[in-house]
Amino acid sequence: MAVTQAELEKASRLLQEGEIVGIPTETVYGLAAAITNESGIRRIFFTKERPFFDPLIVHVASLKMAASVVSEWPPLADFIARTFWPGPLTLVLPKAKEISSLITSGLETVAVRYPSHPDVLELLKLVNVPLAAPSANKFGRTSPTTAEHVRSEFPNILVLDGGPCSVGLESTVVSFIKDQDGCEVIEILRPGGITQEAIKEALKKWSNPVIVRRANSQASPGHLEHHYMPAIPLVLLRTDQSFQDVREKIETQLKHRFMNPVQLELNEDPAQAARELYAQMRKLSQAPADLLFIKMDDQKTGREWEAIWDRLSRAATARI
Length: 320
Ligand code: TXA
Ligand code: MG
Description:
The protein has helices at residues 5-16, 38-48, 63-69, 75-84, 101-104, 118-127, 147-153, 196-203, 243-254, 270-284, 306-315, and strands at residues 21-23, 30-34, 57-59, 89-94, 109-113, 131-132, 172-178, 184-190, 210-214, 234-237, 261-263, 291-295, 318-319. The chain is α/β, with parallel strands linked by helices. The strands form two sheets. A nine-stranded mixed β-sheet has the order 1-2-6-3-5-4-7-8-9, sandwiched between helices. A four-stranded parallel β-sheet has the order 11-12-10-13, sandwiched between helices. 38% of the residues are buried. It binds threonylcarbamoyladenylate and magnesium ion.
């Protein structure tokens, strides 16, 4: 399944010419453009039908490359980067002036990530320019975790097939701020592959106290209430409800009579549940299924489930 040298070279050439390419990462597949090529960046937004207010993540293949896209590299960010990179963590930092405001949606900050997937690292080294890449799906829809998912949505784009994603949910996005007392704060803008606990654990080796907390929902542009949506409605049920109990309520609310409801069930292991979630959502949403439902689960509530429920609640059309 490994990507060949010839494919990498072709992808690199296309990126330099301002084309976009589907890339594997350990979290989800991305739709990449070279950050130095404005027409490539624009093409990402048009292809995804993504609004320009939703900023892109810049992918790098070294700490040095990361430092080149920011204007400040604070010691705490350096410590966090060295602890978790390469991996599913994105750092929001003040942007270097060369970074196009198209990428950052006019913000003074840029989101940077050093992914661990070997194929994207090879590609980055070959292109030798950071790559802006959102998840490779139409705006608002379920993210892709295989090359096939990307090809089915974008048949005319070259996709490097790096196999199924090992994490399966997007990276954790964090920003660095100070509270009123001057204490450093790491705010989690989007929960993801790295949990809040893992960040707190790592900070035990850091010299100063740091507060780690979830940001309020407005802090991350583009992390919208409705996102990651499958092709058919998804409904979240309480643990004690059966579909039959609430069928009428759902049908009234969604103004539709559902003939083939299908249940989505999560694996007991949170890492496995995350890995297979998006593929399951896509597979179960195929005809004749016309509604997906999932039961909330009191057993699946720890920090390691946080990103999964975050995505499911945003993907849901209704909560009963
Ligand atoms: O795992 C991932 O992060 C994947 C893979 C492809 O790397 N990428 C991804 O990109 O999930 P995307 O575009 O689907 O989500 C990026 C999100 C934006 O919606 C926004 O919430 C946040 O990252 N973001 C980007 N730049 C930001 C900034 N300057 N300030 C705050 N949030 C930002
Ligand atoms: Mg996305």
